[in-house]
Write a structure and sequence with these properties.
Blueprint (H helix, E strand, L loop, with lengths): L1 H21 L2 E4 L3 E2 L8 H16 L3 E2 L9 H21 L4 H4 L21 H10 L4 E13 L4 H20 L9 E18 L4 E19 L2 E3 L6 H24 L7
Parallel strand pairs: 1-3, 1-4, 2-4
Antiparallel strand pairs: 4-5, 5-6, 6-7
Helix pairs in contact: 2-7
Length: about 260
């Protein structure tokens, strides 16, 4: 019996290893935050949530279990600064050839603006890939984070129906301000993020999508009666981040299963 159990465990391990080997090797980069909230470490929080969900999916051959704290955006800025200093020197010498040589329309000027088919610095991406034995880099940018009002037809209909009902009740029973108009408030926090896959050896962006997560709450005021809460809180923020992370992983998995990503 023990022998059969050992063989079964071995087969499962071999199957798991073969599945991982079939999937390209990846690393998750710490996300960038292009919003005014970068000081509250939203990028780090979202990166950690995405990593947890990537691991839980068991669909990715991840070479690290933590997001890499290597800022590609800063590395690209430093590289561009070096090029600018070189060009300034060339211009001072009256030689404009270096200013226009090597033009590549596929070159992405920043990681936040990089689209499918564009190239980031191969020197930077390949160095990261080689250091972690990864073929692909998963990288994201938070482009919007804040509060808002997200209304649906259901809530609009509910608001109208409640207002009509309370108006009829108020006319039949004179309760003064106790029953007045109905005010339904739906507020929340939204997170919008661009996610992209970069081929480490070439720096080419092979996949990108924009996803968002919204955490909402509803409050209802009927005259002097108030139900729910209009104040934003940390729980709403955490839920919005978690929803955004889940949508990121869902988008990746959907295109992998559809054969749109990581096709050999």
């Amino acid at each position: 019996m023990k022998k059969i159990f050992s063989i079964t465990v071995l087969l499962v391990c071999l199957w798991t290893a073969s599945m991982c080997a079939a999937n390209p090797t990846c690393v998750l980069m710490k996300f960038n935050d292009d919003t005014r909230f970068d000081q509250i470490e939203s990028a780090a929080s979202l990166s950690d949530l995405v990593m947890e969900k990537l691991i839980a999916s068991k669909k990715f051959n991840l070479m690290e279990t933590r997001p890499l704290d290597e800022d590609i955006e800063t590395k690209l800025y430093d590289e561009n600064l070096r090029e600018l200093n070189y060009l300034n020197t060339a211009i001072e010498m009256g030689d404009f050839n270096p200013l226009f040589n090597g033009f590549d329309e596929r070159k992405a000027q920043s990681i936040a603006a990089a689209q499918v088919g564009q190239i980031l610095s191969p020197e930077i991406t390949s160095a990261i890939g080689k250091a972690h034995n990864a073929e692909y880099l998963i990288q994201g940018t938070i482009i919007n984070l804040g509060t808002g009002a997200w209304w649906s037809d259901d809530y609009e209909a509910l608001s109208s129906a409640l207002n009509l009902a309370t108006a009829a009740l108020s006319s039949a029973i004179p309760l003064g301000d106790f029953i007045g108009g109905v005010d339904i408030s739906k507020t929340g926090i939204g997170v919008q993020c661009d996610i992209r896959i970069i081929k480490a050896s070439t720096g080419e962006v092979i996949w990108n999508k924009r996803v968002g997560g919204v955490s909402e709450q509803v409050s209802v005021d009927i005259g002097l009666i108030s139900i729910g809460n209009r104040k934003l809180n940390n729980n709403l923020y955490a839920k919005a981040m978690d929803k955004a992370a889940q949508k990121i992983v869902d988008a990746l998995l959907a295109d992998i299963e559809a054969g749109k990503l990581f096709t050999k």
